[in-house]
Structures are given as C-alpha cells and as structure tokens.
Automatic annotation (TrEMBL):
<feature type="transmembrane region" description="Helical">
    <location>
        <begin position="78"/>
        <end position="102"/>
    </location>
</feature>
<dbReference type="InterPro" id="IPR039859">
    <property type="entry name" value="PFA4/ZDH16/20/ERF2-like"/>
</dbReference>
<keyword id="KW-0012">Acyltransferase</keyword>
<feature type="domain" description="Palmitoyltransferase DHHC">
    <location>
        <begin position="163"/>
        <end position="289"/>
    </location>
</feature>
<dbReference type="Pfam" id="PF01529">
    <property type="entry name" value="DHHC"/>
</dbReference>
<dbReference type="GO" id="GO:0016020">
    <property type="term" value="C:membrane"/>
</dbReference>
<keyword id="KW-0472">Membrane</keyword>
<keyword id="KW-0812">Transmembrane</keyword>
<feature type="transmembrane region" description="Helical">
    <location>
        <begin position="108"/>
        <end position="127"/>
    </location>
</feature>
<dbReference type="GO" id="GO:0019706">
    <property type="term" value="F:protein-cysteine S-palmitoyltransferase activity"/>
</dbReference>
<comment type="similarity">
    <text>Belongs to the DHHC palmitoyltransferase family.</text>
</comment>
<protein>
    <recommendedName>
        <fullName>Palmitoyltransferase</fullName>
        <ecNumber>2.3.1.225</ecNumber>
    </recommendedName>
</protein>
<feature type="transmembrane region" description="Helical">
    <location>
        <begin position="249"/>
        <end position="270"/>
    </location>
</feature>
<feature type="transmembrane region" description="Helical">
    <location>
        <begin position="206"/>
        <end position="229"/>
    </location>
</feature>
<keyword id="KW-0808">Transferase</keyword>
<dbReference type="InterPro" id="IPR001594">
    <property type="entry name" value="Palmitoyltrfase_DHHC"/>
</dbReference>
<keyword id="KW-1133">Transmembrane helix</keyword>
Length: 341
C-alpha cells in the first residue's frame, strides 16, 4: 500500500513511503501516488489555488478565517453553457405547453389541471437543477496535507492514509479527484456538465430528483403534444392556436424531439443512479471494477442515507434543508461578487 506523508526538507517536497497493510488498495489510488510532489501550505496559496479552479471554498483547511459556507459554483465554460441550455430548453417547453397548447384551449379544466401539473413539475425540476449545481458535492479540504496537520492526526505505526498529489489533500476512502472541479470529491459518481458540477456525496439526491422531474415533464409534454395534434387535425387547425398552423407545427415538432431526447437520457440516468444507490457503488467504482473495501449498506439504508431519513414525501422535495435567509445574510457580509462555499 502506498502512503504519502508530507515533510518539509530542502525545497519542500513530499516523500513517499511504502507501507504494508492488511487491506489492498485500488489501482487508481496507486497511480495517484507520486514519489515527489511540492508541498502546498495552508493559507493564501491554497486559497489562490481554489480560485484558479473557479471555486472558492470555506473550511478549516482552505484558508478562510471564518469557514462560513454560503454557495458553491464551478466556473467551467462548458458546464455553464450546458447549464444555461438546460434552463433554456425547459423554459422553451413551458412556453410551447402554456401558450401554444393550453391557453388557447376551450376546455378550461383541461388547461387548468395540465397547466398546474406541468408548471409545478417544471419548477421542481429547475429547483433540483439549482440545488445540484450550487451544492458542495462533498469536496475534501484542499491543501490540508501539511506537516502540522499530519502530526496532529497522531497516526499509529503502520496506519495508512492517502494523499492526492493533484490538490495536496488527505484523500478519504472512496474519494476521487475531479480534473474539472480540481478537487477530491467524496463518493464522486461522475462530473455532469448539464448541472455544471460533480455528483457526489452531498448533492446526489438533488441530481436524482432533477433527472426524475425532467423525465416526468418530458413524458407529460409528449402526451400533451399528441393530444394537441389529434385535436387540431380534427378541426383542421381552425381556432386551434393563436399561432399560424405552420408556426405551431414547427414549435410542436421541436418540442417533441426535445422531449424524446431528454426523456430517454434522464430516464436512463435516473435508473442508473437508483441502481448505484441501492448497490452502494458509484459509477466510477463500477466502471473501474473496484473491489469494495467498505461494508456495503443494504438497499433501503443506502436510499435513506442519500435522501435523508425514512421514506416520506420530503424525499421528492428539492427545497428541503434550504435556508435562503442564512445564505443571503452570510453572503451579504462578504465584499465583492464572489461565489463561496
């Protein structure tokens, strides 16, 4: 087993020591260990590294004096474009459903009920997207593998810990380094550009809700489009919509294509996430075929751990645990327009 323990010697390098232990380490951790790596000291240098990655992180080993956590945001160009496209496509579906299909309808209750259901699901989907994007996925404090902190752990002889040479942090079990977030993420499942964030220990629940609600509104939009086509063909598009027949058909066709694409993608992702949670195995661990060195939870224990508590309607609520007032007050105490955790 390979263990990196940081020491200061000469030009501040990290010496690697090979230690035998009972448990076998996985291949990806062995590849992460290097014999020599510059030692990052906690403080301004570490904070500058976080800012260079597009993320400002608060915590006891990140350089913040107070450690207040307000918001997490990844400044990745591709991720921000994909996240913006996600919102645009959802809002486009809202426009077509409301202004092309429901409002022109002469059936008041049909429009009211379908409008209430579709718009409620769309709000829940966008709220889940925001919570996934702006929630710390479980980032390990950056640059905490200093000599002083290592000594404070009071390790026993033969006890092994891991250090990530890329962000110079102590690497917990089942943590993986994300090259986009430039951080080690606890129980990292994957990095999703559509939410501009990693899916990890702390935001997996919101990602599951996001995929579920997008799949539901996609299926609902397909059903409404089919009904609208059928109704409009019967009356030969007379008084069927406030738009011309040609414009209405183009809008509906694009909506159907979008709904089919997103329904397929999110339904598959939702099933994959539920399967991973029930098996207590992340997607990275499954792809790398890692042998579990941890005691796997049962299916229900895994679900309760991710969604919080016993089964209830709160599992489907993306607003659970959101304290907007605390976030605004904490953010207001900071100067500038920076995003922080």
């Amino acid at each position: 087993m390979t263990s990196s323990i940081c020491t200061q010697k000469g030009a501040k390098t990290c010496n690697t020591r090979i230690t035998k232990a009972k448990m076998q380490s996985s291949n990806h951790r062995l590849r992460d260990m290097e014999q020599h790596h510059p030692l990052l000291s906690g403080g301004p240098d570490v904070e500058a590294g976080s800012l260079a990655a597009g993320v400002m992180v608060g915590g006891p080993h990140s350089g913040h004096a107070t450690g207040n956590r307000t918001m997490w945001f990844i400044q990745d160009s591709c991720g921000m474009v994909c996240a913006t496209m996600t919102w645009f496509l959802v809002l486009y579906a809202e426009f077509v459903v409301n202004f092309v299909m429901l409002l022109p309808s002469k059936n008041f209750w049909y429009s009211l009920l379908n409008g209430a259901v579709f718009n409620s699901l769309a709000v829940l989907a966008l709220a889940s997207h925001l919570r996934t994007m702006l929630t710390d996925p479980g980032a390990v404090p950056k640059g905490n593998a200093t000599k002083e902190y290592m000594e404070s752990l009071q390790l026993k002889p033969g006890e092994v810990i891991y250090k990530c040479p890329k962000c110079c942090s102590i690497k917990p079990e089942r943590a993986h380094h994300c090259s986009i977030c430039k951080r080690c993420i606890r129980k990292m499942d994957h990095h999703c550009p559509w939410v501009n964030n990693c899916v990890g220990e702390k935001n997996q629940r919101f990602f599951v809700l996001f995929t579920m609600y997008i799949a539901l509104i996609s299926a609902h939009a397909l059903g409404l489009s089919g009904m609208h086509f059928f109704t409009c063909i019967k009356v030969q598009w007379n008084e069927c919509s406030d738009f011309s027949p040609g414009v209405s058909v183009l809008l509906l066709i694009f909506l159907c294509l979008e709904a089919i694409l997103f329904l397929t993608f999110t339904a598959v992702m939702f099933g994959t996430q539920i399967h991973s949670i029930c098996n207590d195995e992340t997607e990275i661990e499954r792809l790398k075929n890692e042998k579990p060195t941890w005691e796997r939870r049962t299916r229900w224990d895994g679900m309760k751990t991710v969604f919080g508590g016993p089964p209830s309607l709160l599992w489907c609520n993306p607003f659970t645990g959101l304290r907007l007032r605390r976030i605004l007050l904490s953010h207001g105490r900071r100067s500038g327009s920076e995003f922080s955790v």
